[in-house]
Amino acid sequence: MSEAAARPQGVPERSASGALTRRLRDRISNPWGKPRFLPAFTWLYILWSVVPVLIAIQFSFNAGRSRSTWQGFSLRWYTGDPDLSVLHDPTLRTAMTQSLRLAVLTMLIATPIGLALALGLARWRGRGSGAGNFLMLFPLITPEIVMGSALFLVFTTLFSFVRLGTVAQVLGHVTFSISYVVIVVRGRLFAIGKQYEEAAMDLGASPRQALRMVLLPLLAPAVFASLMIVFAISIDDFVISQFLKGGANSETVPVRIYSNARAAPNPSLNALATVMLFFSMLAITLAVLGHKWLSRNEDKRGGAGAVRDFARLEI
Q: What element of type H or E holds 222?
């Protein structure tokens, strides 16, 4: 018996196209189903973001001066060219040195201040604590061009003894970097809680000893991650570095790339940007790996281990 004869009378034949349309409609209208288009949009965004960077890196190894036609692999724009390479061009070398100097100084200054501020805000209770926590986040929500222009006016009119240049740039970088340190450290601080400090003080530790011997070792992963994050943010900054630069000696890599790219660009700028990208990615990689390694060691040791170490020292 054929399929048409076996079908009861009055029941319409279901076409394959109708079933496919219904399945597609069910998949799209089901909010709890597996996401179908999100991975595609994610990969499109990644390609849109990464491909231009990869092209710039590629042409930093171009043998010729063209930034659109590949002419062979070479390290000419890094070390080979006697006048225009990153190694031999004094302006590019100065810009890289200035960026690294600012990043290191900002990292060493902003991280301890942010750590102290995070501890203070976490322990602060009472009137004014809410305003203090909000003001801590203010540099994050302030447009960078507003902060840059404000700091420029402060250093040129109010605090005129601070000259534009390295000192002003360091102060500007520290100003907006502290908030990042506070957020990272406070996240770790709230995850730890206060029980380990209280246990150490029950064993006879003073608040200062509990902070130094128990809490700070537990905060080591967040402190290390903050160091690397501040380094990466500072070395990439353009707006504040541009507003607060005092002359050619205080130009950073982003400022140098911006000023040269609008005049007579050559692949040495791609090489300089690649070197800066390397340092930024190295800092972020160290932050992730160092945070994981320190967190794993602290998880094995545990907060109770820090308290036991203090108890053994007291004994």
A: helix 220-236
Tokens of 145: 């061009």
CA atoms within 13 Å, Cβ hemisphere of 205 = 26
Q: How far apart are CA 225 and CA 243, in angstroms?
A: 28
DSSP for 69-104?
A: S---B--IIIII-TTTSTTT-HHHHHHHHHHHHHHH
Looking at domain 81-314, its CATH superfamily turns out to be MetI-like (1.10.3720.10)
Q: List the structure tokens of 88.
A: 């031999």
Question: Token match 């002003």: residue?
Answer: 168
Check: CB of residue 62 under 8 Å from CB of residue 72. yes
pLDDT at 313: 44
**Residue located via tokens 């602060």:** 124
Among 27-41, 59-73, 148-162, which stretch is predicted with the lowest mean pLDDT? 27-41
Q: Which residue in the block uniquely carries the two structure tokens 């991650």?
A: 225
Checking if the pLDDT of 141 tops 90, the result is no
pTM above 0.85, yes or no: no
Residue 203: helix, strand or coil by DSSP? Answer: coil
pLDDT of 174 above 90: yes
Residue 30 pLDDT more than 80?
no
Per-residue pLDDT for 168 more than 60?
yes
Phi-psi region of 190 (alpha: psi -120 to 50; beta: other; left: phi over 0): alpha
107 pLDDT band, cuts 50/70/90, is: very high
Report the distance separating Cα 278 and Cα 228, nearest Å.
Answer: 13
Which run of H or E residues covers position 274?
A: helix 267-314
Domain boundaries, the chain: 33-74, 81-314
